[in-house]
Amino acid sequence: MTLRCVIVDDEPVAVRRLQSLLRAIPDLEVVGTAGTAPAALELIVGTGPDLVLLDIEMPGLSGLDLVRGLDVEPPPVVVFVTAFGRYALEAFDLAGADYLLKPVEPRRLREAVARARAAVQGRHAVEQVGELRAVVQALRQWDQDLALWAPDGDSRRRLPVSSLVWLQAERDYVRLHTAARSYLIRDRLRALEARLPPDSFLRVHRSAIVRIAAMSGLRRLGDRTYELIAADGQAIPVGRSYAARVLRVVSAV
Questions:
Q1: For the segment 82-122, what is each residue's pLDDT rounded down to a tens digit?
Q2: Single pTM value for the model
Q3: Where is the Response regulatory domain (predicted)?
Q4: CA dihedral sign, ordered 111, 116, 121, 123
Q5: Which of 37, 70, 79, 87 lies at a CB distance of 3.0 to 4.6 Å from 98, suitable for a disulfide?
C-alpha cells in the first residue's frame, strides 16, 4: 500500500530535508505540507493522510495543541519531529507513534515510517494504547532505573545513568566519565546512545555524549568551535556538525 503523508513544520529547510529523505522510502507519497497548526488541520481534514510528520514548536498553536484538537476518523498516525527532547513524555501521552529529534537521521525516519505503516495496516487500537503506555512508563523510569555495568578491578560496578557526566568513544570501547573517576567498558557509543534517555543525554561529537544536567557552561573557542564545561570542570569538545544542535539545546535549558 502507498502511505499518504503530510509534513507540518514552520521551517522550510526542515520541510525540504524531510521531503528529500522521504523520496528514498518506497510506497510513500507526500500529499501536502503546512507551516502552522490551523493550516495543518485544514490540510489533514482535506486530504485524509495516513501519516503526519509533526513539528512541536510553531507560531501560535503548537503541534501538541494540534493533536489535542484533532477530531478526524480515521485519525492519522502522528510522528513528532522536533529539536527538543523535553516534550517526549507529553507526545507519547498523546499517542504519538514515534518521536524524532532534529536533525532527523535517515535510519530513524525509516523506522518511524515502518511503524506507521504497520499501524495503518491493522494494528489493533487496544494493543497500540498498551504499547504506548509501556513506552511512557519506561521513559518515566529511565532516569531512576537505567544503569550501566563497568569493570572495577576484579568486580563490576553498577553506574546509574544519573551519575554519568559524559561518555567518550575509544575505538571498540567507551569511557564512562563520572565526577569522581572514569570506567572503561567494551561497547559502541552508538549502541549506548540508543539505550540512554534522549531528553537527558545529548550527542555533541562523533565520539562524545554528555548528560545535559551535568553541564554548567559552553565556551566558544573559535568559529563554530565550542566546548562544553561540566559542573566538575571537565571540558568536552563539541563537533562542528553538532554545534547548531548543542546551541539550540543550551538556549532551551
A1: 887 676 677 666 667 788 888 889 999 999 999 888 888 86
A2: 0.49
A3: 4-117
A4: positive
A5: 79
